[in-house]
Specification:
The complex is a heterodimer of chains A (about 300) and B (about 280). Chain A has nine helices and 13 strands. With about 300 residues, chain A is α/β, with parallel strands linked by helices. Chain A folds into two domains: about 160 residues, Rossmann fold (3-Layer(aba) Sandwich), CATH 3.40.50.970; about 120 residues, 3-Layer(aba) Sandwich (Rossmann fold). Chain A has a seven-stranded mixed beta sheet, sandwiched between helices. Chain A has a six-stranded parallel beta sheet with strand order 2-1-3-4-6-5, with helices on both faces. In chain A, helix 1 packs parallel to helix 5. Chain B has about 280 residues and is of the alpha/beta class. Chain B has eleven helices and ten strands. In chain B, the strands form three sheets. Chain B has a six-stranded parallel beta sheet with strand order 2-1-3-4-8-7, sandwiched between helices. A two-stranded antiparallel sheet of chain B has the order 5-6. A two-stranded antiparallel ribbon of chain B has the order 9-10. In chain B, about 45% of the residues are buried. Classes of the chains: A alpha/beta (about 300), B alpha/beta (about 280). At the A-B interface, helix 2 and helix 3 of A face helix 6 and helix 7 of B.
Chain lengths: ~300, ~280
């Protein structure tokens, strides 16, 4: 029997952007048509459109350029080297985008970038919480993880109006190991805020963004067999209804989040679960358990692993 | 030439009169939203209005009433919608972020220097032979975004006209009180971008050159920087100090100049106000 070749998230992103690319879309970024082409992310992109070019190193103006396309009802894709570089363009991500929302602009601007999560960044480039970006001005932010969600989210981003930020893990972007068995894909919500993989009802696991890589490792180590896994790809606007239903059934939830933010989006889900007196185990990037918050409830959350 | 000058004069008066009307609303406390008046800047909006073509677009900064008065289909409605009793009902965007559908003014920004790079993006998709006017002040050119956008416009061959209204003020400070001098001509030369300087003294003689520069921008997609030396009117004197207002009510006199000291303009202005 012929085995299906597994593609890495970078190859899949490249493939589906080219597949769903609209005519006259402006494609730009630093070195996108030179050198490694952002680790292969933009390979062959210049053959699909005439409006593709390498740019200068000025993130603020480059995001402004894309916002101009959005405001004039056109489409643009900006390939940025890494998420924290976008900090230079906060003015446009917040102010200009809010202004375009008031104008009801019909254009689309998609930013595709890497989240640096290799773990040896040092004092800089440590920003990895996409939810923080998303919460600033209703930006559609998505983690690109497995083939199903990459296809779904790229198609959505390239066909819908507004500002979208799509992120790939730098650590696992080139990984060709099969992460999740797509045969277990149970359902996802219409907006693609999560992707659900179900093998049973005894345990609910919720993995935010790229913590899914660690989650799969944990599932393997702990030999969990019957679980209901939710992979959150939209960090700020997750539809938690199905998660609550699943957790109410299993009565046991494991929450995973590797983002470094002090304002994690899973706290909202966690407060709901605590209210329902569901047992929670959590593995977060930092220890930020708010004792005051938890003391309201009569039991402790185990910080596991 | 006289025909164009006459058109510019009339448009300037129209804009001045409109602003006086809005200023009266502020004085009467009907308008509590801060308005950035552009008394003394009208000539720039009038010049663009007299030269602009159908598919050309304009991107404005926060001080934009002189353009709104000439380019909006119903400017009075825009400002009266800012009256306190209507402001919250209509969820208006404020005076700095003017927007109207199907208007040549495609974007206005309340953030200093924000509109330079957005102009590059809009300009990239401009229709053939059409250009984009990006208006900003001498305060905005201090932002790094100005230099970045000049480089971007030159590299992408964008048909963009950067109009810099240099009134020597930003917020409440004169240029010399906040920074070193910037020689825009030399800056443009270093990036190989055309530059033109226009002031009250050389206005009439500058129009022809300005038209040629616009033509060049239109035909060869060459960005250009045009610096206007103007004086924002409506100041006040306090403790023997000249105070430039940032926004809000302006102390404007009917005898204040419209860029040039032309008696007939003042006469026309007074006559039309009298009517």
């Amino acid at each position: 029997m012929k085995m299906k070749k597994i593609k890495s998230p970078i190859s899949l992103t490249n493939f589906y952007i080219k597949k769903f690319l609209k005519k006259n879309t402006l494609i730009f970024g630093q070195n996108i048509n030179a050198g490694s082409r952002l680790g292969g992310l933009t390979r062959g992109m210049d053959q699909f459109t005439q409006n593709s070019f390498n740019t200068q190193n000025s993130e603020l103006s480059l995001v402004g350029l894309g916002m101009g396309a959005l405001i004039s009802n056109n489409k643009a894709i900006y390939f940025a080297k890494q998420l924290d570089f976008l900090l230079l363009s906060m003015d446009h991500l917040i102010n200009t985008y809010n202004s375009s929302l008031c104008q009801n602009s019909k254009g689309a601007f998609v930013i595709v970038t890497y989240i640096v999560d290799t773990g040896y960044e040092g004092p800089q480039s440590r920003l990895n919480c996409l939810g923080d970006f998303a919460s600033m001005s209703k930006i559609n932010c998505r983690y690109l993880i497995s083939e199903k969600d990459i296809k779904f989210n790229i198609k959505k981003a390239l066909s819908n109006k507004g500002l979208h930020i799509l992120c790939i893990s730098q650590k696992f972007g080139n990984s060709t190991n099969q992460l999740i068995d797509d045969n277990n894909l149970a359902s996802n919500d219409d907006t693609g805020s999560y992707f659900r993989y179900k093998t049973g009802d005894t345990l609910t696991i919720v993995a935010y963004g790229f913590s899914i890589y660690e989650t799969m490792q944990m599932i393997k180590t702990k030999k969990y067999q019957k679980f209901d896994l939710f992979v959150i790809t939209n960090p700020a606007n997750t539809n938690i209804k199905k998660i609550i239903t699943s957790a109410s059934k299993s009565k046991k939830v494991i929450l995973m989040d590797d983002s470094g933010s002090k304002n994690k989006n899973l706290f909202w889900l966690e407060s709901k679960l605590l209210h329902l007196k569901i047992k929670i185990k959590r593995n977060l990037n930092d220890d930020i358990v708010d004792n005051l918050f938890l003391s309201k409830y009569k039991f402790k959350i185990k910080n596991t692993f | 030439m006289i025909k164009i000058l006459n058109k510019i004069y009339n448009l300037s008066i129209k804009s001045r009169l409109f602003q006086i009307k809005i200023n009266n609303f502020v004085k009467e406390k009907k308008l509590l939203v801060p308005i950035h008046f552009a008394f003394g800047h009208e000539i720039i909006a009038a010049l663009i209005k007299s030269l602009i073509k159908k598919n050309d677009k304009i991107v404005l900064p926060h001080r934009n009433i002189h353009f709104v008065s000439l380019f909006s289909k119903n400017p009075l409605k825009f400002y009266t919608n800012l009256f306190e009793d209507r402001y919250y009902k209509l969820k208006s965007v404020g005076s700095m972020n003017y927007h109207e559908n199907k208007n040549q003014i495609i974007y206005t920004s309340s953030i200093l220097g924000n509109n330079f790079s957005v102009s590059c993006g809009i300009s990239f998709f401009q229709k053939k032979k059409s250009i984009l006017f990006c208006i900003a002040g001498d305060g905005a050119i201090e932002e790094g975004s100005f230099y970045e956008s000049l480089c971007l416009a030159k590299y992408l061959k964008l048909p963009l006209v950067f109009l810099i209204e240099n009134n020597q003020w930003s917020m409440y400070t004169k240029i010399k009180d906040r920074r070193c001098a910037i020689d825009l001509k030399k800056l443009c030369k270093s990036i190989n971008i055309n530059y033109q300087h226009i002031s009250g003294q050389n206005f009439s003689s500058s129009i022809k050159k300005f038209q040629n520069n616009i033509l060049n921008c239109r035909d060869f997609k060459e960005p250009i920087v045009v610096e206007f030396n103007i004086k924002t009117l409506g100041y006040s004197i306090k403790d023997n100090n000249y105070i430039n207002y940032h926004h809000g009510m302006a102390n404007i006199n009917l005898d204040d100049k419209i860029f040039f000291n032309k008696d007939e303009i003042l006469y026309k202005l007074k006559k039309s106000l009298h009517k």
